[in-house]
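Whiteboard transcription, Tuesday session. T.W. wrote the structure tokens on the left side:
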């Protein structure tokens, strides 16, 4: 049923929500009468409560059971869906009494659980342990359901019921003390305030709002402030300059007054009163003698990092109080060399300046440093500030070593320059002042023997007695040292290149050369240029003149190889050209270098041409095919190795059978014969082909004496004594030629190609292979000469 009146006290009506009555056997509504099967599964939704609020507010649903009874159902407070949560058993309990409730959405939670009703008498009571509180809930709504014991109607058993919503209004009682409104409280007293000035007004009300009592205000302490007992206005009692604290915590009491005028229950709160200073004083810097805006200090450069500049005695002060006296300190100047502490000041502080970057405080960069010390208020609207100049004069120290303009210097000087010639000038600078900035130069190193340096100017020149020769040594390097008065120094490396001049002409080993040429094989001449560098020592060869006039030769301009022209294949062709049986030519060959200016020299080359024949000639022709020669040598060496292995194996087996152990034999090298040349008879058969080409060395093997003297420096001193070379000796002569035939040129074929005169500066090495070839050529010439003489 609908409520008959408003829910609370006020001018606006507030009606209770109610359930819809959809009749028995319905699955939604007020759950007036509902039947369940005992085998209904747990978790099944069995019913849906359905209700509404007359004001249109959202409703909430609730369930409650008799005390001590089992709770079989649970309801969703928003949707009203009731779910079975416990197993039913009809043999134990055939009916379940459930109290359902409905409230509007403004209530925090259903309160019907505070009440219980007697099932028979219908008396509604407050449950044991529960208590009504007006300050929490002023109105309770309880739905009462009445049903009969059931009976037969229209042939079936039927239970009839009815429900009503009971509205319970709670009456307030004097059980709550007064409470202050709008806490916390803050008040302010300014330095221009006068006694009696209002500071703050507090407000309190009786906690029993249903029947409130009047409030009276009072202070626990009233020596500094006072309060109006009725209005709660707090006032100042003394001038502000007598206030000894910045903040006061004032306790205010609000008490209920009974109708009889008696003070009853009370509440207490704290009012924080802050003494506010007016911002009428800017920060000020002070020195030893009072206010000051310029501070000076003299100190050496590069002080230790973290050091305090003790010569500066600066104090900063703001005469205001509280936040008006709070300001920041900043140091404005070049770089981050210095920093100031403290950075935040309240009222007054001693200013300390610390070194932060010692390296930057350099006299060579800054003779003096100027900073601005700035004090700026933080939390004021006026933002008062003050500045002071900090001037620091730096004194120089010897903190720099001389520094060269370059880490290395490259110089070039022509060879044969006179002694005392300038080579290069080095420069080093020491930025320090006075004697510390004066630089002296010196040189040292293995390559500095031929050079001097002027200590003051740094000019490097050659020794007066020095003679630079690129052919002897073209590269020198040494170190130059720049040092100040206290010994601080730096080094640079000097590289000197002696420029080669074309001061040496090409030179042949002999100005008259004699060569024997086999058709198909070139002959080679060689000149040497003692200059050190190209193109001064690069030689070009050319045939300047040929006698007879018919020049049948070509020369390689780079290598000096002389060969017959390509169309000359035999001696017959040469004889047809010359109309003579004599095949001897004299060539004037020029060797010219490529220097500037260019030098040249000439030599006469006599060439005897012969034709190859037999295996020996074939070998001579093929000597320009190195791969074929290498193959022959490899085969010969392999054969020798195999023979050696066979002999060693046979000797070992013989010794093993005889059970003998042969002693070790000392191998001694016999001195070689003093004869320069020793030929075996080429026509006599030898055991091996190798003996045909065996010759003796032209010089004795020098005796080497090694004297190893041990010193405690891990360097061996090796002295070599070479025996002098043997005196020159003429080679063995061939057999005398036959008698002279008329009509033929009478000339003698030499057994060697030429006599080599040693050069004073360079001596070309005579290879063994060339020596052997010359010997073979001589043998071949002898055989050809005999054959020619025997022809009628």
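and on the right, the sequence the group agreed on:
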């Amino acid at each position: 049923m609908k409520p008959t009146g408003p829910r609370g006290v006020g001018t606006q009506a507030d009606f209770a929500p109610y359930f819809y009555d959809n009749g028995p056997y319905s699955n939604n509504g007020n759950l007036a009468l509902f039947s369940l099967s005992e085998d209904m599964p747990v978790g099944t939704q069995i019913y849906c409560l359905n209700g509404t609020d007359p004001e249109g507010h959202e409703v909430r649903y609730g369930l409650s059971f008799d005390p001590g009874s089992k709770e079989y159902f649970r309801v969703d407070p928003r949707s009203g869906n009731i779910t079975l949560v416990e197993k039913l058993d009809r043999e134990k309990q055939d009916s379940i009494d459930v109290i359902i409730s409905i409230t509007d959405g403004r209530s925090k939670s259903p309160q019907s659980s505070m009440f219980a009703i007697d099932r028979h008498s219908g008396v509604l009571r407050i449950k044991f342990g529960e208590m009504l509180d007006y300050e929490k809930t002023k109105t309770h709504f309880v739905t009462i359901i009445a049903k009969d014991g059931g009976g037969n109607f229209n042939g079936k058993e039927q239970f009839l019921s009815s429900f009503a919503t009971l509205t319970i209004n709670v009456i307030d009682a004097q059980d709550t003390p007064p409470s202050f409104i709008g806490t916390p409280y803050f008040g302010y007293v300014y330095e221009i305030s006068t006694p009696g000035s209002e500071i703050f007004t507090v407000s309190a009300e009786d906690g029993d709002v249903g029947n409130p009592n009047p409030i009276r205000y009072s202070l626990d302490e009233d020596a500094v402030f006072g309060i109006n007992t009725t209005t709660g206005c707090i006032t100042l009692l003394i001038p502000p300059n007598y206030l000894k604290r910045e903040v006061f915590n004032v306790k205010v009491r609000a008490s209920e007054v009974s109708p009889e005028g008696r003070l009853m229950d009370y509440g207490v709160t704290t009012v924080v009163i802050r003494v506010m200073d007016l911002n009428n004083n800017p920060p000020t810097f002070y020195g030893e003698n009072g206010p000051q805006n310029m501070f000076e200090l003299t100190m050496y450069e590069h002080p230790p990092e973290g050091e305090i500049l003790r010569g500066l005695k600066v104090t900063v002060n703001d005469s205001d109080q509280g936040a008006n006296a709070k300001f920041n300190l900043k140091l404005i100047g070049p770089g981050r060399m210095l920093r100031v502490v403290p950075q935040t000041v309240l009222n007054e502080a001693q200013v300390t300046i610390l070194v932060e970057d010692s390296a930057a405080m350099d006299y060579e960069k800054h003779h003096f440093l100027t900073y601005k010390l700035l004090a700026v208020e933080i939390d004021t609207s006026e933002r008062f500030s003050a500045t002071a100049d900090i001037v620091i004069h730096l004194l120089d120290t010897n903190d720099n070593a001389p520094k060269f303009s370059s880490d290395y210097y490259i110089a070039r000087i022509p060879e044969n320059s006179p002694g005392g010639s300038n080579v290069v000038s080095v420069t080093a600078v020491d930025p320090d002042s006075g004697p510390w900035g004066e630089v002296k130069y010196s040189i040292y190193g293995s390559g500095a023997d031929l050079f001097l340096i002027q200590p003051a100017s740094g000019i490097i020149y050659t020794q007066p007695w020095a003679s630079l020769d690129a052919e002897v040594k073209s590269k020198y390097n040494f170190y130059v040292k720049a040092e100040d008065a206290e010994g601080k120094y730096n080094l640079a490396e000097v590289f000197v290149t002696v420029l080669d001049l074309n001061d040496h002409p090409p030179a042949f080993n002999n100005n008259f050369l004699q060569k024997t040429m086999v058709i198909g094989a070139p002959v080679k001449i060689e000149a040497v240029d003692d200059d050190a560098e190209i193109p001064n020592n690069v030689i070009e060869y050319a045939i300047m003149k040929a006698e007879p006039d018919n020049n049948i030769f070509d020369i390689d301009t780079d290598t000096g190889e002389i060969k017959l022209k390509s169309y000359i294949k035999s001696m017959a062709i040469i004889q047809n050209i010359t109309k003579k049986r004599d095949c001897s030519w004299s060539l004037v060959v020029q060797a010219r270098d490529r220097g500037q200016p260019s030098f040249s020299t000439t030599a006469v080359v006599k060439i005897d041409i012969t034709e190859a024949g037999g295996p020996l000639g074939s070998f001579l022709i093929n000597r320009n095919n190195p791969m074929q020669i290498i193959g022959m040598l490899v085969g010969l060496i392999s054969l020798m190795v195999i023979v050696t292995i066979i002999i060693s194996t046979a000797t070992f087996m013989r010794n093993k059978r005889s059970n003998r152990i042969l002693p070790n034999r000392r191998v001694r090298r016999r001195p070689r014969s003093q004869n320069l040349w020793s030929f075996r008879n080429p026509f006599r058969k030898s055991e091996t082909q190798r003996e045909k080409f065996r010759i003796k060395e032209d010089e004795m093997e020098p005796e080497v004496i090694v004297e190893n003297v041990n010193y405690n420096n891990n360097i061996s001193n090796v002295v070599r004594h070479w025996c002098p070379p043997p005196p020159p000796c003429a080679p063995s002569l061939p057999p005398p030629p036959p008698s002279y035939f008329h009509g033929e040129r009478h000339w003698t074929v030499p057994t060697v190609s030429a006599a080599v005169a040693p050069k004073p500066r360079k001596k070309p090495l005579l290879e063994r292979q060339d020596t052997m070839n010359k010997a073979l050529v001589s043998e071949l010439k002898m055989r050809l000469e005999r054959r020619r003489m025997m022809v009628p």
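Someone added at the bottom: The chain has a mean pLDDT of 77.
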